[in-house]
Amino acid sequence: MNNIFQLAEACLTSPNLESKLDITCRAKQLLESQSLDFSEAFPPLPIDRVQFPKQLRWVEPKDLKQRKLSTVEGRVALLHAVAHIEFNAIMLHWDGVYRYRNLPVTYYRDWLEVAIEEMTHFCLLRNRLNELGADYGDLPVHNGLWQIAEDTAENILARMALVPRFMEARGLDVTPAMIDRLEQVGDTKSAGILTKILSDEIGHVAKGSRWFQTLCHAEEQNPQSVYFQMIEKYLGGKIRRPINQNLRLQAGFTIEELQRLEAMSSIL
C-alpha cells in the first residue's frame, strides 16, 4: 500500500494504537523515498467511521483529576494529558489529509509531515511515561479535541482556522509555563521533551497560517474576517489567556489578529 488516501483511511479506521503508529511510520518511509502515490481513487468515509484505540477510557473534561507536579503521579498525569493531545494531533492531521480532496500535492505533503512529527512527539512522551512506570491509556482522557474535527469535517477553512490556528496555537501559549514548572520540580528530561515539542509546534501553526490564507484567498475571502467568524461560530468567541504574542507572530499571526484576540480574551 503506497497511496496516501488508503494509508490515511487505514490509520484512521484502525482501533489499534500500534497499527496507527506503524501506518504512520510506513507513510514516513514512503514520503522520504518519494514513493508515495497521491492519486485519488475513492471518496472519504464519514468522520464517524474514525476509531480511537480501544483501551482509552473517556470522561468529561471536568472529571479529570488535577495532581501536584511535585509527585511522580502528577508528572505522569501532565505527560499523559500532553500525550493525548499529541495523539489527537496525529489523528487530526491524518484526517486533514484524508477528508479534503482536489488540493495541491504540497498540501498533502505538508500535513502528512506534520502528522509524522506529531507521532514523534507522542512516542517521546510515551517513552517518558514508560520510564515513570506508566503508559498511554492508563489514565482517562476526554474527547474535546476530536469534537472540533467532527464539527469541521465539511469545512476546510474551519478546520484550518481551528486546528492549527486555535488548538495548536493554544499550545504555544501554555507550554512555556509547563516547561518552567517541570524544571522547578527537577524533571529536566520531561521539560526537554516539551521544549522540542514547542519548537516544532511553531512550524505546525505556521503551516496552518499559510494554508488558511491560501485557501481563503482561493475563495476570495479575507483571512482575518473568516478566522474570527470561525471562532465565533464554533467556539462562541471564547479566548483564554495567556496569549504568547512572540511565538504566535513567529507562527504567522498578524499584529491585528493578536490585538483582537487580546481584546476578546479580556472579556472573560
Residues in β-strands, percent: under 5%
Number of strands: 0
Number of domains: 1
**SS class:** mainly alpha
Spans of at least 5 consecutive residues whose pLDDT stays below 50 are: none
Please summarize the sheet with the most strands. Answer: none
C-alpha Rg (nearest Å): 18 Å
Helix content: 55-70%
Mean pLDDT: 96
How many alpha or pi helices? 10
CATH arch. level architecture: Up-down Bundle
According to CATH, the homologous superfamily is Ferritin, core subunit, four-helix bundle
Listing every helix as H and every strand as E from the N terminus to the C terminus, the arrangement reads HHHHHHHHHH
Shape: globular
Q: N- to C-terminal separation? A: 49 Å
**What's the CATH C level?**
Mainly Alpha
CATH third-tier fold name: Ferritin
What is the gist of this entry?
The chain has helices at residues 4-13, 17-32, 72-99, 105-131, 144-151, 156-184, 188-218, 223-235, 245-250, 255-265. α2 (17-32) crosses α4 and α3 (72-99) packs antiparallel against α4.
